[in-house]
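Audit log entry. Action: structure prediction of a protein-small molecule complex. Ligand: zinc ion. The ligand was supplied as SMILES and no pocket hint was given, so placement is left entirely to the predictor. Protonation state taken as written. Sequence taken verbatim from the request; no trimming, no tag removal. Recorded inputs:
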Amino acid sequence: MTPRIRPKYGETIAFLLSVVAEPSDECILWPFGRNGQGYGILRRGGKTVLAHRLALALYDKIDVPPPHIHTRHSCHTPLCINPQHMTWGTHAENMLDKAMACRSGGVKLTTDQVLQIRASIGTCKAVGEQFNVSASTVSLIRRRDRWAWL
Ligand SMILES: [Zn+2]
């Protein structure tokens, strides 16, 4: 585990603002404190705030939404605060993302396979078995929630 930097007063929010002003394409890892789930945290107004949510809210120029609005990391890196790697989503979408992340370690689909899945006409389950992925992955590909650029 990388050592955590103990921030000076105002340093955490300054870091957040600089990231939000100029996000790069790469993951930007929160260098300060983190919680038990591996998300970056900071103290703000006497409260502990999740850094990635604040980053996305600042980026979208909104207040941090209530907890039932989850954040989805497209990069599956909890410590990443790059607002371009996140969207607001529902709990259900978040769970799906997590499931996808687990599988993507073992199964890699080629561009060809994704196009074949999209063109396929079988049930999600049958097609999933054929390509060694879950039915939900097939469904996501067909709905263009995954590999949308293909
Ligand atoms: Zn990222």
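Audit: result stored. Residues 91-104 form the longest helix (14 residues). Strands lie at 41-44, 47-50, 70-73, 86-89.
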